Amino acid sequence: MGALLPVLSAGGRRRNFEPAGPCSATSWVLSRWLGHVPWVEFSFKAAYTVHLGVIDRLAEPRFVLLWQREFGADENDQALVPTIVAAVRAVREAYAPFMPTDTLVTKVLLGTLGCLPACDRYFLVGFKNQGFSYSCLNALFVERVLRFCSTNLAELRSEQERIESASGVRYPPMKLLDMYFWQLGYELGAAEASQQQL
Q: Fewest CB within 10 angstroms: 107, 119, 142, 157, which?
């Protein structure tokens, strides 16, 4: 389901690191993907191997359900909220020397497990504009996005199927939620910018 899936063996453990192997490739992908985001200075200052700690942590058996399921698509997903909060902590611990932001943590989790939207500027603008509050990345936020998915699951599934039939790409519900609120935030930001120019 995510960019890191090829790194995992059947038991949910990371395969041995090989310089040209899947772990280095996955770490390189994370480095390139995150490196295009200006706020992630460490991607420019550290080798791609900086991401291996995240790979190790997210490959732990306690997160295997997050690799196997689309969070936000099942009525029993509320039980996974503590596991997602644990994954948030694991990513923070892996990047601790770099003081990771909520944006970095959620971008990594979206790109790997697909279990949270990326809490970047435009997402948060769109999310707040629709009446949701956000103060920090915590269990309450995870429950809010899960509730949104549950309430709008039929529409998310319809959009998921439409995109998959058109492109062959299946986005998990949290990626769809991410794209929806990001687009709202982007449009609000563009409208505000054009009004300021008047």
A: 157
If you write DSSP's letter for every residue of 76-94 in order, what string do you get? TGGGGHHHHHHHHHHHHHH
DSSP 168: S
- CA 62 → CA 13, 57, 87, distances in Å? 11, 9, 9
* Three-class DSSP category at 8: strand
- SS3 label, residue 14: strand
Report which residue type is found at 191: A
Q: Which two tokens stand for residue 112?
A: 């790997």
Q: How confident is residue 36, by pLDDT bands cut at 50, 70 and 90?
A: very low
CB atoms inside a 10 Å sphere around CB 78: 13
Q: Residue ranges per domain, the chain?
A: 5-197
